[in-house]
Specification:
The strands form two sheets. Strands 2, 4, 5, 6, 9, 10 and 11 form a seven-stranded mixed beta sheet that branches. Strands 1-3-8-7 form a four-stranded antiparallel beta sheet, with no helix packed on it. The protein starts with a strand and ends with a strand. By secondary structure, it is mainly beta. The radius of gyration is 13 Å and the shape is globular. It is built from no helices and eleven strands.
Length: 123
């Protein structure tokens, strides 16, 4: 499956962005999807996961209550709505996919990756 992330940009603290990740090539509904971010000089961290059916979601503590993950299997797209953005949310955001029903909590378990989209939050 090929993944194309988009929607990043520059926003002020407290602002919002919606990231999108469009998939092509294989049956999107077979894949659990994840958003992972990596800030300069830091390790990559899982931000949010959604199961292939969309019924199970996971959020890192740092984004709970501010970010919402969703997917539209008919459009082969997963979204990350990011509200109340903070400077510490600044990072490159990647979407990734793994075939299967579960929610996989380690970035290394995801087999397919998009190219990343930069999110910059200014104070």
């Amino acid at each position: 499956v090929q993944l194309q992330a988009s929607g990043g940009g520059l926003v002020q603290t407290g602002g919002s962005l919606r990231l999108s990740c469009a998939a092509s090539g294989r049956t999107f509904s077979r894949y659990a999807m994840v958003w992972i971010r990596q800030a300069p000089g830091k390790e990559r961290d899982i931000v949010s996961i959604i199961s292939r059916s969309g019924t199970i979601t996971y959020y890192a503590d740092s984004v709970k209550g501010r970010f919402t993950i969703s997917r539209d299997n008919a459009k082969n797209t997963v979204y990350l709505q990011m509200n109340s953005l903070k400077v510490e949310d600044t990072a490159v955001y990647y979407c990734a996919a793994r075939e299967g029903e579960g929610t996989y909590l380690y970035a290394s378990l995801y087999d397919y990756w998009g190219q990343g989209t930069q999110v910059t939050v200014s104070s």
